[in-house]
Amino acid sequence: MLDLKELTQAVGDLEEELVMDLLNEFVKASPSEPEAQEAIAACQAGMAIVGELFEKGDYFVGDLIFAGELLTESINLLKPVLGSGADTVAGTIILGTVHGDLHDIGKNIFKSMSEAAGFEVIDLGIDVAPELFVKTAKENQGCIIGMSGVLTLAIDAMKETVEMVKAAGIDAKIIIGGNPVTKEACEHVGADQYTTNAAEGVKICQEWVA
Questions:
Q1: Of 12-16, 41-45, 80-84, 153-157, where does mean pLDDT reach its minimum?
Q2: Phi, psi torsion values for 190, nearest 5 degrees
Q3: Which CATH number applies to 4-86: 3.40.50.2000, 1.10.10.410, 2.60.260.20, 1.10.1240.10?
Q4: Which of 65, 109, 128, 178 has the smallest number of CB atoms closer than 10 Å to its CB?
């Protein structure tokens, strides 16, 4: 049967070939849905290792992108075992890089990790106008709104978006993420939480829907 620790370490070491070999063998053995969930959890644990190594300076942005792609590839391989997932959706996250910012690396990594954790993610893309966040959130009441930004100007766009969401009376938790995001910025923007780490961001969202 699948060695979960070996899988975690393989993801952490970015050993794509080994990860795919382990998962292909696993899928061939007709695992149950709970076993497939365990495999995804092991992959997520590997992503946490990647995050730690990135923070230490051992991994770089290119490694983060590769890890995000590897996680997406792993999830896609396991999706048939997981069934439709309709009865296991943890919640809905509306995600986008805010108006004026065109960066999407962090957003895409967070998206992959959120989907692996069972969330339905509505990805609005980059340079997203506040009005689009509001419109989509209205159509998905009770959702989580995730806003990403790398440029300093993103903070103002986040603040504008949060103000419009609140003015529209939308029931949504709001998390912001990206390089310029700090505790002070979060308070200034009016968001519920902030993160500069995709794995931590997913944990926050999981606590909100628990």
A1: 80-84
A2: 95, 20
A3: 1.10.1240.10
A4: 65
